[in-house]
Amino acid sequence: MADKTPKQCPLAVILAAGEGSRLKPACGGSKPIAPLMGLSLGERTLCACAKAGVRRFLIVLGHRGEEVRAHFEEIGLRRGFKVDFKVADDWTLGNGASVLAAADFVGDELFLLTMVDHMVEPGLYRKLLQEPPRSGEICLAVDRNRNGLFDVEDTTKVSLINGHVQAIGKDLKAWDAADTGVFLCTPALFKGIEKARARDRHGLSDGVSELAGNGAVRAVDVTGEAWLDVDDPKALREAERSLIDSLHRGKGKEDGYISIWLNRPISVWISTRLARTRITPDQITVASFLIALVAAGFFAAGGFAAGLVGGILLQAASVLDGCDGEVARLKECGSERGAWLDTILDRYSDLAVSLAITYGYAVAHPGALPWVGGMLAGGGFLLASYVTKEYQLRFGVPYPNDTLNRLKRHDLRVFILFLGALAGAPFAALLFIGALTHLLLAGIILKGWRRTLT
After folding, report:
1. Distance CA 210, CA 2 (A)
2. Cα–Cα distance between 5 and 13 in angstroms, integer?
3. How many domains does the structure of the chain reveal?
4. Which CATH number is 343's domain given?
5. pLDDT tens-place string over residues 253-264
6. Cα–Cα distances in Å, from 148 out to 78, 125, 156, 277, 383?
7. 72-92: pLDDT as tens digits
């Protein structure tokens, strides 16, 4: 019986030899380099594999090989991936010929096989890697959700018996699941493709069909993990839509109420445009912080007009504050450093804005009370982040994103200050949201205290 996980993550063979003629109108003729929300299809494939633990790649080249090689070499250098190349001289025969070009490099090694034009969630690769094939066998990731397929007619289909592939092809009349185009293989795959080639059949599916006849193709059910064959402009648009949807889903469990219903729809629209530029997430973080500082300056000036401009700028900074993480996810460049910078600058902007609003009010209302109120509010804003992080540190689990947590978040504080500015009473709004924040923190502390008693 095979182990459930390989001892080390295998090499990934990426088929990038095809011409991609149907995708030409959108990519200009080189499928691996086709742009998709700030990254190429090829880079997205490597990043998804890397998230599943793969760090070594063999790229099989064919059409416009030198151009594609240079593109992947740059990706490898920038991201720290080990990338090698093989040229499939007879790639025009079919993708089976492209697989055979990798045989000498792979040798006797277990390898992951995927297509450069398939957008695949890392979870799909992880599930497949947990089901390594036995000697002489290959594993194919299959999706049983027929209703979730984007283009059923163009999908390669498989029929299954007792968890093994019995037949494979696009024209199967009776079928059980879809071929996702992702395999975990022993070198047996090369033998199957050689047999098919002897029959003058050169597709990858032809080689798989040869092995299936001997019961050597095991199906691994990955239903529920997202994947998409991006082989024409319509599929490319679907891939873009899927990425945008992932931004709405990705932070929903962590967002506050204002982010969910107001900020996120706006920030996603902005992020999908910023992702196509050279602007980095860290630059967006700093820009949001600087806008908040300018807003603080207007609050400090006092008066309705200045406060109104300050409120509008502050809310704009709050919306832009969501773009850094969204662009990082779209361009697969998120980092602990960026998340840390974002958190620190948020706290500085909280402090600057609360002090500025207090100053603007205190100029017209001298005395100690405005400063006491402002300092208490600002202190609550700073503690809002600290309390839940301390909870996680002490109890070893994140504080749940319950109503208390959602209401004490940065997005609601900013929105209340924005509404206060619109009403000409930013200081009253500051006192209100400061008092609310302290009450919410008291609730969180009480929950933590009760946890220690159970």
Report:
1. 23
2. 19
3. 2
4. 1.20.120.1760
5. 678 899 999 999
6. 35, 19, 14, 32, 45
7. 999 999 999 999 999 999 999
